[in-house]
Amino acid sequence: MPLSLYNTLSRRKEEFQPVHPPQVGVYLCGPTVYSEAHLGNARGPVVFDVLTRYLRHLGHQVRYVRNITDVGHLESDADAGEDKMEKAARAARIEPMQVAQHYTNRYRQHMLALGCLPPDIEPQASGHIIEQIQVIEEIIANGLAYEVNGSVYFDVPRYNEHERYGKLSNRSIEDQLAGTRANLEGQSEKRSPLDFALWKKAAPEHIMRWPSPWGEGFPGWHLECSAMSRKYLGKLSDIHGGGLDLMFPHHECEIAQSQGSHAHTDEARFWVHNNMITVNGTKMSKSLGNFVLLGDMFQGPTGPLAFGYSPMVVRFFLLQAHYRSPVDVSDDALQAARKGYRKLMNGLRLLDKLAAIEATGEVLETAAQQLLALAAKPAEFLNDDLNTPRALAALFDLLKRFNTLASTPAALAEVGAEALAQAAGTYRTFVQDVLGLRDEPRANAEQLLDLTLGFYSEAKADKAYDKVDQIRAALKGQGIVIKDTKAGVEWAYSEE
């Protein structure tokens, strides 16, 4: 069964075929780095990390691009309000690029902690102004954009004469006009309330500005991804995606820009969107006090959560739901995820024990085939629109079989070493390499050291000098020396 993915553009699952096999170009819309990343910012990277890992597992040569938005994202989708970067910079009284760098660093740290491999390319919008200006010039040359007082707007009604603006989100122009909050009053530069900014003229107080053919200004938020995707993945990439909240207007505008430029494509063949996150059944919102920042979540407690949860538990939790389904965050759900994650990790330890067991007896072909059939299930489910919850369930089924084999030597002998090695390799590969779940040290080194020093003191008091010497030697092997002082037992790093 080949890999199939749900394509938002066609609203159906389609067999995945690369544009230029074996190369695959994947683009994920990254964060606007004006504040700390929250749990919602993590779902897309985790989903796309598994997707890129699995594509590589299937033999594709993947170029994965995840951008950083550090300019041009205004507070309102109607091209109004302050730039989010500038607003954060003014509040902190620092340079916007200081804000961008700080939160970019934090975002990268959090993504690595969650087990997300770094993207192959991580372009920043502010570093691609030239490319964005070129796309604007192409759109103007094609008669689909106009300049007013130093700003440039995309002409949606004109574009809609030949293409359908709204085909990704399945919205008609009439519905958009009826539902839009924008109107021509206060936005007299726009010919239509549906038009969106490609370039905005910088007001005198605006800090972030660049020269352009239309005067000093800054690019529109939607333009950035179109320009950077084309630069690094070509005029038509394989997969482009992000959160469901980006489908309209951001991704809709991206398609319009790519069609309106000299590329004349939908920018990507597959548009893939992950669903949103709720907290205890309610939309996550700062105003409701249920906003969950990643850094706080890892430490805990925070907001609606009474405990902290490690990054790998959070990753497992996110993978328990299909990426197109919403995820509800609660302590109960996260504690259940922690149990499931630890069970998978214990499975990795079990495989080492199984490999060491010497089982003798006749190998039964049916027993071996049954084990290999179980081992084939995770791939089968991931091929079905990256169904990670069913893939996890299949891994638990395989683990259940491993537990039976570990406790029943006769059954282990019937399976045979070859089938066991193949199934064990599949388990390791899918848990670690595809789903990206790694073992996290759960022990506190300081607490373990204090406990060991307690044992040392007890052994010394009991004059059990063989144990005293054994503990001293073991700690010295870890680069730690024990010091007996008048104040009690202390430790220090070995300087030898």
TrEMBL record:
Q: Which InterPro entries match?
A: Cys-tRNA-ligase, Cys-tRNA-synt_Ia_DALR, Cys-tRNA/MSH_ligase, Rossmann-like_a/b/a_fold, tRNA-synt_1_cat_dom, tRNAsynth_Ia_anticodon-bd
UniProt keyword list? Aminoacyl-tRNA synthetase, ATP-binding, Cytoplasm, Ligase, Metal-binding, Nucleotide-binding, Protein biosynthesis, Zinc
The record's SMART domains line, in alphabetical order, gives: DALR_2
Question: Motif 'HIGH' region: which ranges?
Answer: 31-41
Q: Which reaction does it catalyse?
A: tRNA(Cys) + L-cysteine + ATP = L-cysteinyl-tRNA(Cys) + AMP + diphosphate
Domain Cysteinyl-tRNA synthetase class Ia DALR, residue spans: 377-449
Q: Is-annotated flag, keyword Nucleotide-binding?
A: yes
For the motif 'KMSKS' region, what are the positions? 283-287
Cofactor requirement: Zn(2+)
Q: How is the cofactor bound, as the UniProt entry phrases it? A: Binds 1 zinc ion per subunit.
Task: State the name under which the record lists this protein.
Answer: Cysteine--tRNA ligase
Q: Which gene encodes it?
A: cysS
